[in-house]
Structures are given as structure tokens and as C-alpha cells.
Design goal:
The chain is built from nine helices and no strands. It has helices at about 5, 10-15, 20-30, 35-45, 55-65, 70-85, 90-105, 110-115, 120-135. It is elongated and about 45 Å long.
Length: about 140
């Protein structure tokens, strides 16, 4: 790979530990509606890589990505709701996001749904699916 190619690919910057350069490219892509870039920008804010750690900003970027059907971002939102990071803890909404992440192919989501399934009622599970579906398909 040439030096020119690496300057165009934020994933390479990220792997090299140049989080600021990766963030700059992902931010432009994310603002232009790229759900993968939105998810990755959310990850940078969540972990505090190249930016100050900010769970609220992370949540907002994950949310934008999740609404486009990004299963990883949907799982991340479920995790944030389950732990109360960047948003008020809400196990029902966590379940709903894990459910949709599972539908979209996230392999970890089913385990988290089973874990939350003993903490919320079947009615809450159904309501969670409806709420998130309404957010995804307004």
C-alpha cells in the first residue's frame, strides 16, 4: 500500500493509532450520512480515542447509525441503555435495540436478550420491539 492510499483510509489511520486523522475522515463521512462512519465515530467518543471520552456524543452517533440498520450500532445502543452510559438506564429499550441488532445479524445480541429476558416482563419485551421498530420506521 502506498502512502497516498493510507491517507485516504481512516481504518488504516485507526490501526496505526492515529485516531485524530481517522476521526477527521469519519466525521466528514458521518455528517454525510455514512452509517459505518457514524458507528466508528461513536466508538471513538465512547472509548476516548482522539477525542475526549463523551458518552452522550457516542450515543448520538450510534443512534444515527442504528437508525440506518447498522447492527453493531444497534448493539452498542442496547449496551449503553443496559448500563446507563450516555443515557438513562432502561432495560426495556436495551432489549429492543438488542432485538433489532440480532435481526440485523449481530451475533452477540441474542445472549444479551436472554440475559435481559429475566429482568423484564414479556409485555415489556413486546413493547420494546414496538418502540424501537417505530423509531427505525417512522
Amino acid at each position: 500500500m502506498t502512502a497516498c492510499e493510507s491517507h485516504q483510509n481512516p481504518d488504516i489511520y485507526f490501526r496505526e493509532g492515529n485516531y485524530t486523522a481517522a476521526r477527521q475522515i469519519w466525521k466528514v463521512q458521518a455528517e454525510n450520512g455514512d452509517p459505518i462512519a457514524q458507528q466508528k465515530l461513536g466508538m471513538l467518543y465512547y472509548l476516548g480515542l482522539g477525542v475526549d471520552k463523551d458518552f452522550s456524543k457516542s450515543f448520538e452517533w450510534y443512534r444515527l447509525s442504528a437508525k440506518s440498520g447498522n447492527a453493531q450500532a444497534q448493539w452498542n445502543l442496547g449496551s449503553m441503555y443496559a448500563s446507563g452510559l450516555g443515557v438513562e438506564e432502561n432495560l426495556m429499550l436495551a432489549y429492543g435495540w438488542f432485538y433489532h441488532a440480532d435481526l440485523n445479524g449481530n451475533q452477540q445480541a441474542k445472549d444479551y436478550m436472554e440475559y435481559l429476558g429475566v429482568k423484564i416482563t414479556p409485555n415489556q419485551m413486546m413493547k420494546a420491539k414496538e418502540l424501537i421498530n417505530a423509531e427505525l420506521h417512522p
